Structures are given as structure tokens and as C-alpha cells.
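Class, carefully examine what follows:
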Amino acid sequence: MLLQTATRNDLADPFLFGLSSGAAAGAVFVITVTGDVLGIWTLPLAAFSGGMIASGIVLTLVRALRNSAPEKLILAGLAVSFLFAALTNFLIFSGDSRAAHSVVFWMLGGLGLARWNNIWLVLLGLGLVLLFALRGHRKLDALLTGDVTASSLGVPVGQLRARMFFISALTTAAFVSVAGGIGCIGLMVPHLARGSAGPLHIRLVPAAALCGAMLLTASDILARVLLAPQELPVGIVTTSLGAVFVFALLIGGNRMRR
């Protein structure tokens, strides 16, 4: 939701900016190259580090393009996503082929590694993004009107956008370090939440959090029962739903223009 507000682009999400791809690349690096050198925390730490490296590159590009149109930020994020996707594929083909199952998990995501002893990472990310969005909801609302209008209202647009990217990156890295790269949730949820809560962030933020939780839980249940007793990576379900959602979004937009 923050990324869509920052770029004023309905298709913006962590995958588009390479944040999820960086975290997945960090996990795949450990699986195929180093192994569990730090015990059970090796994979989460590697995924978190990969996500933060990707976010550092994106934030550098955001700062360099702070006076540019939001569309250029999308292209910069897409370039970072391609970079880390290429790195991940290289590691897969050059590493141990027996680690394919673990690699698939981190690339497609799942809740199989969620434990009570690592839930604090998820809660930390959730608390951080909720606190930031709710405290600055009026500034986020002003950003929806455009950079010029927001600046005239006293909003430091460039600084606010950089903070939004940083918070989004940190939160994404925390989530992916526990659950892998689950695609399209961040794309679909803001649209679904706006349908019930409207565009103003004071209501949209909690609505998006609740909607995301419900959608992910439903997708996880579906992933567990479709091929029972075998469990599908939940990312297969969410990306399938995301494809249908984008088609519906495009068709609906065309009908409205007519």
C-alpha cells in the first residue's frame, strides 16, 4: 500500500521493486553455497540481509531520482528485481541440485517455517509499518493529490517518499525472512482494501492489514488441501490469484474508459 501511494502506480508492490527478490537471493545463496553456518537462524538472516541489500540499491536510486517522475522509480525497481532474479537463477544452476526443494520454498514462499520463536520478526515489521503509516496518514493522503499539491501543503515529498521506501523495504525483508517470497499479496490487497475503506489512510491502513491476513490465510489453506497430503508453495496460489486479479483490473479499467 505504501509503495502504491509513493509511486501513484496501481501495480507497485515489493516484487516490482526487487525487495522480495533480494531476500530470496540471500536465502538461495545460503542454501546453495554456504550451508547452515549459523544454525536455524542462517536462512532468516540471509534472507533479511539480501532484502536489505536490494533495498539499499533501490533507496540509492530513489535518492538519485528524487526529482523525477514516479514512473522512473518503477523502472529503477524493476531493474533491481531483474538483477536479483538473475543472481538467484545463477546460484540455482551453479549450486547443489539436491537443494532444489528448499530453493523453491524461498522463491515461492510458504508458512511452513513459521514458528513462535521467529514470530517477533513478523510483529516487528508489522508494528513498524503500521506506526509509520498511521502517524503520517495526513501526509500520505496529501501525496495522493500529486507532488506539487502535496508540497504546497508543506509535505516534504522527496524525504517522505524515501522514508516510505525504507520502511517498506525493512518490513518486506522481515516478512520474507520468515515466509519466503509470497507474490502478489502486496499487489492485490491495497485495491481490495480501498473498495471497503476508501482512499484515506487512517482507515485504509488497518483495512489493508486485515485484508492481507485474510487473503494469505485463505491462500495457505487452499495450498494445503489442493494436492493433499502434499503441500503446494503458497506463492503458486497467490500468483495465480494475482494474474486473475490483474486481468480483471485491466478489463474493468477499459470498460470504465468506454
Summary: Residues 70-94 form the longest helix (25 residues).
